[in-house]
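Hello K.,

You asked for the raw outputs rather than the summary table, so here they are, unedited. I folded two proteins back to back in the same session to keep the settings identical. This is the first:
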Amino acid sequence: MSFDALIAHLGTLVRNTMRVPLHTKHRFMLHSTPTSVQEAAFKLLDLDPLRVQ
């Protein structure tokens, strides 16, 4: 995998702010689950994926 492809793949991690339709004031954060490649890259970089989103 090239460096550009790895950076693009790491960029697919997302943090979404979700709202409940019946109670629009109630919100929560939903984080995507890292793939095995993303977990390995973050481990090599000694970074916590939740802290870089």
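The second followed immediately with the same parameters:
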Amino acid sequence: MKKLLYLLLIVPFISNAQFWTEKATTFATASRGISGISIVDANTVWVKAYDGSAAAVTTVKEYAKSTDGGNTWTSGTMGLGFGSGGLGIGNITAVSGTTAWISAFPDTAGTGGIWKTTDGGTTWTKQATALFNTGSDSFTNLVHFYDANNGVCQGDPASGYFEIYITSNGGTNWTRVPSASIPAPSTGEYGYTNNYEVAGGTIWFGTNTGRLFKSTNMGTTWTVTQSPSTDFGSATAGASYTFSDANKGLLLTNSGVLYNTTNGGTTWTQQAFSGPIYLGDITYVPGTSRVVCTGAATGASGSSYSLDDGLTWIGVDALQHTDVAFLNATTGFTGGFNTSATVGGISKYTGTVLPRESFEANGFSVYPNPISDNFSIQNGNNIAISGLTLSDINGRTVKTINVNAIENQINIADLNSGVYFLNITSDKGTATKKIIKN
């Protein structure tokens, strides 16, 4: 197929006990890799498998699920019905231990679409109103549910525009988003399976032209911008991306160049960094400045983390990792490859390395950002602030701000251009906001 990016098994995956704890996914066949992770809560997580020993795309239809925080797993097969043998699984999204959806992409004979389980994966039912059969150009890429009712699924352009559906009743009825609500595709443009990110009600997906489509209302209307990548699926020009919230994000190209955005991907700025970084997958701990990246390529396998929005990276190991996902600062998982039904396949974060922000930094906003000379702070938390300092990327305090100044504009015209961190202190703890001085 044209669009599926899977990693091959090179060596057994053995986790670093300080950051990751390895668990068995229980897949009966060895070399099952993980290419999709859906964390519901601290207890419940679903993953989907692929054949990590095959160079070609395979049609593995297997999932694994944990309901005890990733300590133990049960695996199963997705029975999609007659004529589905050639279908491949794009991604999995879940809202509980019993309810999940998968996207399935077509082969030359079958028709892809969306399937749902409400019995923990024992049976799967196709949701017929997400058509994905409007012609030979129809190709299902992904499905995502924000809760038990509201979801969106996306496919390649069909009948001249991207095939996107939304639902407000769990997929019982899907409605195609009209062409007027989606930017027109460029010539030959298409998406990739499981290539998307979500932050709250905002969702992004990438294409083979390097464009990022974005919706801030759960898929109802869309905008598009050009990213630093020229093709998200390219071995050389491709990239992975992640968002901490609707505005702050990072994009890491397959050539090892890191970019940041503070406006949801409208514009990107190249960012210098230090420390080991891996090119397989990257994810923010939502709502924080903590980032984790993983890789499974020959000579570049490993994982690392950053506490400062990707400026400084700390290596964890040099072992194989596939996808990585975090729910919060205590719950996260990374995929690997099993060697048997009882050994390996996934690792859970130990919950002891990434510090938790002691109060929510998202309640504070800095504007404008980037900054020329003056900026203001909006305190949405209504928390009494006891201290404000600015530090540079080396952690040195460069300015102490009078807390009474937050009612007015704060002047930093005396600082050089660059990246700084606004450190906010209160009796509830500390929080940090990154700012950029032009």
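The radius of gyration is 22 Å.

Happy to rerun anything if the numbers look odd on your end.

Regards,
P.
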